[in-house]
Queue: 2 jobs
Job 1
Amino acid sequence: MISILTCIGTRHDPWLVTLAMVICLIGARATVSLVRHAAVERGSVKYAWIFFSAIVIGTTAWTAHSVSVLGYISDGPTWFDPTLTIGSLLISMTGAYLALVLASLPAPKAAPALGGALLGLTIAVMHYTGMLAYRVDGIVRWDPHMVAVSVILSCVLCAVALGILRAQVASRRRDLSASLLLVAAMLAMHFTGMTAMKIVPFGPVQPEDANEHVAALAIAIAAGLIIFAGSFAGLIDSRNRREAGEQMAALALVDRSTGFPNRAAFRAQVRERCQSTPPGDRFAIIAMDIANMPAISEQFGTRIADLVLQATGNRILQARKQGVFLARTGEARFCGVGRVTNRAEMLLRASKLHATLCRDLLIEGIEIAVDIRLGGVVYPDDAAEPELLFGKMQAVLARAIADPLRPIAIPDEVADAFARRRLAVSAALRGALARGEFELLYQPQVRITDRHVAGYEALLRWHHPVLGTVSPAEFIPAAEETGGILSIGEWILHTACREATCWPEHQRVAVNVSVLQLRQPDMAEQVRAALAASGLSPDRLEIELTESLLIEDRSRAHHVLRQIKALGVRLALDDFGTGYSSMDVLRIGLFDKVKLDKSFVADIETEPQACAILRAMLALGRELSMPILAEGVETDEQLAILQREGCDKVQGYLTGRPMSVSMIAARRDPATARA
Ligand code: C2E
Ligand code: MG
Ligand code: MG
């Protein structure tokens, strides 16, 4: 080592050594860039890039060598053999081409290292051929050990450099390491090689001028080649970078209002981490949702809501640990992706975040409470595949949002299966109406005295190609959550009114409405439009609603219901006996009918108390002149009790299951039609 440093320090012109180093740096950098291009191409284009890379690295090694040799302070007069000098350049380029082709082969695994070793050997052969061209008037002796060291150094360093280039995805740091290794290989080879050489001069001889000129010209050409290739690669690189930048913008990876990376960027990041996380390592996704954002918007307006979003984003940024990727993935949702060692660490981070983010915000003098819900998943423990991981994350967050007592949720197989199903139902609901997946079935409501059908209750059915037939008990809450119930509800009204016009005049149709529908200021107008479009007489339409609907927003609901009643439409109180069963609701005189809930009817055979309540209810109905219908009647015994106690109507599997309009038409008997 000392002898090498002495050789560089005492036997070389420092300016020319510096120049050689600069040439090596430029050439190695350009080579790495060209090899990267070759790696992503196929067929002849790939080989063209390899050829180009070989010219650059071949000339770089040769030029650096020649410049250093020119700077070598010999003990005697020297000159160059032009044929061998040019020959060494050709060897350098040809060998480099073969080496880079070998390194680019898909198999064996060691191909990059073998290619690198061949490149190192090529540089060595070029060097010693070049040294044969270096004529000196004296005896040249070689130290075989140093020669061996120079060849080994060159081969090993080049093998590592090409190994890095082939094994890993491009990154500024990796490319720089590979470039520096190539520079090290060329310089180590050269200076160890020069240290191996000892010259014993014969006497003073004038070198031939022409030779010096040839060398100078050759070096100038070679340097030009490198600079041209380097700038070409640089140009392509910058064009690629510009294209990548444009692509980023086109994909809109940034959320404009917060400046955070958006959902697409987040998904790309998670996919990338799933690929690059080594076995045994873990990363966590923590999703954060401002659950009360709709309420904040409603109460303070969208401008303040935007400020709340930004303030929460800033808090998340401040709380961020190094290396955590943050994105805004939804309306009021942020996601963080970062390394963790285990689930406990993820939970700890989530609870710290929760504590930080839940503090009240002071925005424009207004104190605003933020309700933050968090869901966390860990790769690969919860899922080793990006799409599954996203699914789990959504399910976990949905659970955290739904459960006010547990604002932080982590995967729980049973709970998440429900949440996933709910998410799947919500997603599938979108467009279900347009795809014609809904159907209305009608369940007869039968007069107990003569068993005649007084009307039908319209019950919605959803047939989904993958999920199958989904119960309204499952999809109606989902449709209410997404707001989809509004258009579905309108369709139900129109369809039920239209189909009921085909039934005998005395038969009514009962339509269920949800709380969201009743909140629409134009609900009465929708009902009027459905009646007008179908030509159904208003007194043949009955709207069913549950008691909870009246409790939630009493004055607004009463107003809408009165408007509907003013049209001549009847109102029925559904599921009585399950909720508050408030007598108040009956007192307001809005309802034309009360429907006793099926859970209540189920017990009248066995429980004397249920029977006593039934009796009292029926007496109340008579007092208020309000007919009572019992739901869910399944047995003859139940029917007999209800008849004995003076119930007006029944609905249940015993008297008829929900059926399609065509089935109703087929079943219609002359006796029913006459009544
Ligand atoms: P609901 O309005 O109380 O409807 C009665 C439910 O009881 C129906 O369930 C019906 O099929 C079922 N049923 C009828 N007879 C019997 C019986 O003898 N035994 C038993 N065990 N059940 C019986 P379905 O169709 O599954 O509907 C469930 C709920 O979904 C409905 O309860 C209603 O609240 C809601 N729903 C159904 N259709 C609509 C709709 O078009 N719009 C809205 N907003 N909600 C609807
Ligand atoms: Mg009903
Ligand atoms: Mg009911």
Job 2
Amino acid sequence: MKMLRSVKGMHDIVDDEIAGWHKVEDAYRQHVERYGYREVRTPVLEPLELFVRGIGEATDIVEKEMYSFEDKGGDFLALRPEGTASAIRAYVQHSIAAKEGQTKWYYIAPMFRRERPAKGRYRQFHQAGAELIGVAEPTADAEIIDMAVSYMSHLGLKGIGVKLNTLGGPESRGRFREALVSFFQGRSDRLCTDCQRRLSTNPLRILDCKAPTCIEVAQGAPGGHELLSQDDRTHFDSLRRLLDRWGTPYEVAPSMVRGLDYYTRTIFEVQVDSEALGTKGAILGGGRYDNLVAELGGKPTPTIGYAFGIERLLLVLGEAAVPPQTHLIFVTGVGDGGAQRAFDVARSLRGNGLRAEVAYVEGSLRSQLKRADKFGATFVVIAGAEEAARGCVMLRDMSTGEQEEVSMDGLAARLRESQ
Ligand code: HAM
């Protein structure tokens, strides 16, 4: 029969890979919970309209990359391409604002975008993110950027750099938009067909286009910073002062716009010098999106957040993502009632927090030792009838082949000592 394979761009996580996932996920939970973030879990399927309204109709994600369909009941649904719109939908739906003045949520979840698969770019990928809802102050911007960067450096990531920019509030952004339209209008014949369309739908996106001619034309485009309002400028300067104070590595990237329409004021990306990501792309992206809560039916609420791609982080971490293994203890019984004794010992070791494996099939000691070796066991516990009568077992160190008799009462402590 023909073998079936997973969908293109969607991957199983198998074998030793899972250890790296656990490491980055566990470290992430621990890290952000220290800052007061709590987990939120939302459905994988959402109404299509959530992303059209939230991310913006004229974005690549919504125009080209979303998995959307009409279900059998005639509802238009989409597999979520990102977590922010879903989190804010949940925030509004559950009237969280009525319960607390500020909300800190994090998530670790699969996302779906029908992009061209490549190294570090998948159609199902996983994001870990954080959203801080209800705080307008630039201290929130600085803290959340610093939280993301310190998480990555705790994991051992080298060469972290933050690209930082501000799009300004609605007024500054409107001025920027107008300036871009008048700049690109005279040069539209040199823009790609997508960007010619973007000129009327979403001119900021032109700055994000990867087509060589568009990059060339955009080089002379006006920068948004000269058009910022005093408030927007003060916000950005205060944020920068805090990052400077903490030594958080960043550089201002005035032409960065990001690919989602909900952003206002601060936007940022984390990039890492790494060959593992190939043609690269950011590992993390985020920013302020002060209008989204209102656009999704809530009261105007300032908000900031980020998300990073777990696959990309793991690619860059490479070997550093693999946590050191704790000992695996293989337990085997010999003589009458051996199997039963082996399971008794393994239960007791697991109860003491140790990793223990038992042979389900019986066999000679020689074959059991071979099996232990295959499992990668560092110690083998041999539960023989004679030793059992004295309340003892034999303990074999697989690296040296040495054996010693150990009392059952002291076994867990003896093994823990040699971890
Ligand atoms: P984003 O920049 O679209 O932002 O995605 C964030 C991160 O997700 C990227 O930096 C990348 O690491 C990862 N990512 C995106 N697409 C793919 C893909 N096809 N394959 C692998 N990894 C991918 C957002 O999604 C915003 N919701 C972030 C945010 C949260 N802004 C405010 N709050």
